[in-house]
Amino acid sequence: MKLLRGWLFDTLNKRFFFGWVILATTSFSMIGTGPGQSHLIGLYFDPIGKEMTSFFAIDWMQSNRQTALAYAYGIATFFAAFLLPKMGKLLDRHGPATMLWIVLGCLGLTALLFSLVTDWVTVAIGFGFLRFLGQGALMLACVNMVSQWFDRRRGLALGIMSLGFPISMAVHPPLCQWLMDLVGWRTSWLWLGLSTLVLFLPAALLLAHSKPEPLGLQPDGDQRKQTADTTTPVWGLTRREALRTPAFYIITVGLFCLSSLVTTLHVFFKSILTTHGLDAQVATMMFTISGITAAISMPIVGLMLDRCRTDWMFCGGLIIMTASLISITLVNDLSSAIMFAIIFGLNNGVTMTFFGFLWPRYFGRKHLGSIQGVGQMVGIIGASIGAIPLAIAIDQFGDYDLTLQVLAVLPVAAAVLALFLRHPQTGNAKTN
Description:
Layout (H helix, E strand, L loop, with lengths): L1 H12 L5 H13 L6 H4 L3 H7 L7 H5 L1 H17 L2 H11 L1 H19 L5 H30 L4 H8 L2 H20 L1 H23 L31 H4 L3 H30 L4 H28 L2 H20 L4 H30 L4 H30 L3 H7 L1 H10 L14
Helix pairs in contact: 2-9, 2-10, 2-11, 2-12, 4-6, 6-9, 6-18, 7-8, 7-9, 7-18, 8-9, 8-12, 9-10, 9-17, 9-18, 10-15, 10-17, 11-12, 11-15, 14-15, 14-16, 14-17, 14-18, 14-20, 15-17, 16-17, 16-19, 16-20, 17-18
């Protein structure tokens, strides 16, 4: 394996900067986050809820299935979030390539085992592992690796890397809906697990490398300066130093808001649209439109982040979140559903790019894993509680719309806060 990895690196690096191979590998791996993403797990709420036994003999769970699953999903995600700072330290210690291999292998096995869940407890445990591995750790490893290989073009690179997410959003929901209809929801999870182990793990094993410097390269493919000291220092705040800056908390609040609300819409995407009169298959296809829109927008957003004021971009992304929440409540036919899907796709494109871009821009690469781990933990905590208000609303009142409109106030407040984002070293809104 080592010899094959070395041969592939030498062969490809002779033709072009190997960072582009890293970019392709991580983007492909991001497709593999699907089993841990809300846009996929949310599809299974109805079939899982109908099958679950009353393990605790609590009648409330049986009569409030959406709320019960949302709580199971939320609590599991909440506890999974606290593993991410540890994951960040492991990334700094062992490198993102090693951790990528481990996470992909564990994610594939978890998906296989999820087909065997029988009660609320095993469902919650399964949710926890899927969310930690797929939505948290795998994404963190990919973002960390790309941030190590790109500096000046980091925004564009992360935008391209994140294309794997909208591809997953466009492909996984309709594919898994088809599998559920064909072979049942349990067997569909077997296929998800096998595809992760067979498709995504080998590519990572052969092509992923943690950093350019040990391979004699520099970020962005820059040539090493010919000086007496050929070592290029890698700048970065420690986690403790980052936690003392206002920038960390402004970024955290904004990403917490985005994570919780995006997760809310992903989980209840199909349910909300069917409540507004769309057929289930048509509602699921809106994921595809959102995914295509996100894929188109991500490289554009990445380029804009490299060239525009970061505080303005962050503010604009939060306003788009508000537009997504409002527009889904206005869906009453196919055309308005398509309009929402486009807005939400843009929202996903912006959000995914932000998650990878902001941490290295403001805090450097030296201790990136540790800092990202804490930031990602807060984001995942947001995701853990995001679905609960809507689940309660539908079980108690049979309506999502008023709750969504109230929640739309949150990203507006975070957008105002984002305008005060400044770099810890320079005090500027933008740094290169």
